[in-house]
From TrEMBL:
The keyword Iron does not apply. This is Cation transporter. It holds the Pfam family Multi_Drug_Res. Gene3D superfamilies: 1.10.3730.20.
């Protein structure tokens, strides 16, 4: 995987996670709402950039959404004192396994580029 695409994907994940945490914080303090809007917009913009660089949609979306879910669950414990049940912990492990499986089934860059050229 191209380093630039990977860094963009990580940035999109971090922006989405930060926005979601701010969304939770805005329940008790609405001052966080502008940050929520800006960071969600930023996350989607960066996600679009990864697509423009040729990253496969399935891999991008699976990694972005699954990583976001897992990080938000863990950071919810850290920042908001939320509890994770054993089922939630197993779910996070399954998310990680799922992302690995999706990534391992994604065609290599040369195959993806070849398919884009023929379309």
């Amino acid at each position: 995987m191209n380093l630039k695409r990977l860094l963009l994907l990580v940035a999109a994940i971090l922006a989405e996670v930060a926005a979601t945490l701010m969304l939770r914080a805005s329940v008790s303090d609405p001052v966080w709402i502008p940050g929520v809007v800006v960071l969600y917009a930023t996350a989607f913009f960066i996600l679009g950039l990864t697509q423009r660089l040729g990253m496969p949609l399935g891999a991008v979306y699976a990694t972005w959404s699954a990583s976001g879910v897992a990080l938000v669950a863990v950071l919810g414990v850290v920042f908001f004192g939320e509890l994770l049940s054993i089922g939630a912990i197993i779910g996070i492990a399954l998310i990680i396994i799922g992302v690995i499986l999706v990534e391992s089934g994604t065609p290599e860059e040369s195959e993806t580029v070849g398919a884009e050229v023929t379309e």
